Predict the 3D structure of the following.
Amino acid sequence: MTTTAVDWHERAATLKPDGRAFIGGKRVAAASGETFDCISPIDGRLLGPVARCRAEDVHFAVSDGRAAFGDGRWGQRPPSERKRILQAFAEKMLAAREELALLETLDMGKPIGNALSADVPQAARCIAWYAEAIDKIYGEIAPTGPHALALIQREPMGVIGAIVPWNYPMLMAAWKLGPALAAGNSVVLKPSEKSPLTALRLAELAMEAGLPPGVFNVVPGYGHEAGEALALHDEVDAIGFTGSTRVGRKMLEYAGRSNLKRVYNELGGKSAFLVFPDFDDLDRCAETVAASIFYNQGESCNAPSRLLVHEAIVDDFAKRVATEASKYRPADPLDAATVMGALVDHAQLRTVMSYIEAGRAEGAQVLAGGAQTRAETGGCYVEPTVFGGVRNDMRIAREEIFGPVLGIICFKDEAEAVRLANDSPYGLQASVWSSHIDRAHRVARALRAGTVHVNQYDEDDITVPFGGYKQSGNGRDKSLHALDKYTELKTTWLRINS
């Protein structure tokens, strides 16, 4: 797909996003009439006002979702009809791909080429894939013996609260919407206040595709207002949350304070990328780690921010990675050739720069980058940064930075590599690079992570689950396993008399 024929600056100049909430099948202002400004991190431009939803708005949205669930306008439709409507929703997303990509880029700063080639089609594929799964999921009959018949079937839970982050606003929303809607639930979506625009547009497209009013509502607003109200609401049956570990803890707390709703947290990561000296293509390895950590400006929970390299090759490999980092210079996100854009806002810019300073203060050496750039644009840009001489007890090795910062840690042998990799509160992803098949299998089994890549990183598909161990969360997004989060298992027991 090419983007060179489009003047994205011209399109952006004429775009006027609608920031009102979407409740009950229509756009509405917040009950208070309040709004907040949506600011682009590209250059600080005002994109427009967005409804500042609070508890009252959340209650309206949840009540509409509960009414829609109760009267069966969605969940009781034949599977073939729900399938057709969700497929039409995915098709409308693809038809609107340029508008959605532009909204995503303006809102959170990612390159327009990435938004158009990855975010939109992957989000649409997610919706279409779960649509196709609707009439492929069968119930079970338990092996109870000749005098009973025990039927086991999945039923929708009710109202799902989906709270999604700002780094992949559309894709993360699709990961929740696809299985939750396919199962027959109503969904109330709370997008991040830093990137709410595509979520609001998705709700309109879903309605145009035939989704009944009330089944999918969107309440933009701040986390401590709209997000907290959604997580505390007694009529919400489950929360699907993607975000920081700090807020994930709050989600569990809110469940305990309310109706003990199920909480499925997809949280942070500090993924380890292990390179052994027997791997025979270090150039490809260096290209891969750079592409993986600097993609999306490093704002990815699964970014391999800890690069563990054997002592025999660490100096040489560090030079290769530093060279690769120079290919990811931040540039105009509205230029189709740009490969690295802006951080989401000035607060995140300050956070990333504070970690870079912490790395220097703790004794790590800056091998590439390490500075803010393009400040004259008014936007939020940081150079791709590579640290050498990192220890696993440093803050830049322990804490999730969520920016383009890579730390190189040296190890002596396989046992130390595994120990260092697992010495983290997180366990989202990892990668092993070795030409020895035994070592690759042995190390992959030893790593405590939800996904372990071997001689590649971040190859992915909707058919495989995504999630992690430890403080990286619970439950899984993507694949048929995601349906477990949004369905109840019911057993119907019948006694068969002789």
In short: The mean pLDDT is 97. The longest helix spans residues 112-133. Residues 49 and 460 are 36 Å apart (CA to CA).
